[in-house]
């Protein structure tokens, strides 16, 4: 499966990023997580340092477009094959930057993709 980084991961069980971590792990996807607070969800350590993260296929975003701006270069430098923009994260400005770096943009919901076998 596609090694995935949940970007904007939360320790709060009612957050979609938290649910995504559970579902990715349950689906057998190698999962990493980045968030503001360190912790663990479903056996996945949430890191607040991107320096140790590499070889990512997919980044699934859970931060709003305004907050994404400070991470543009970090995300591009991770060189993922695709970035999934979950509902509420849509950002046409970032789409262009990613596409200019040969990174696929997928405006979708990770939970729906997993649930329908399209991940």
Automatic annotation (TrEMBL):
Short name of any one Pfam family annotated for the protein: CoA_binding_2
Residues covered by the CoA-binding domain: 2-113
Matches recorded under InterPro entries: CoA-bd, NAD(P)-bd_dom_sf
Gene3D superfamilies: NAD(P)-binding Rossmann-like Domain
Domain of life: Bacteria
Protein name: CoA-binding domain-containing protein
Species name: Maribacter spongiicola
Taxonomic path: Bacteria, Pseudomonadati, Bacteroidota, Flavobacteriia, Flavobacteriales
């Amino acid at each position: 499966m596609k090694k995935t980084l949940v970007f904007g991961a939360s320790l709060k069980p009612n957050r979609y990023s938290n649910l995504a971590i559970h579902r990715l792990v349950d689906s057998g996807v190698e999962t990493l997580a980045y968030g503001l607070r360190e912790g663990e969800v479903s056996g996945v350590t949430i890191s607040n340092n991107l320096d140790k993260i590499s070889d990512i296929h997919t980044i699934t975003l859970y931060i709003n477009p305004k907050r994404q701006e400070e991470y543009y270069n970090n995300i591009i430098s991770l060189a993922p094959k695709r970035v999934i923009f979950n509902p509420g994260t849509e950002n046409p400005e970032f789409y262009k930057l990613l596409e200019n770096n040969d990174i696929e943009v997928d405006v979708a919901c990770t939970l729906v993709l997993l649930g329908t076998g399209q991940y």
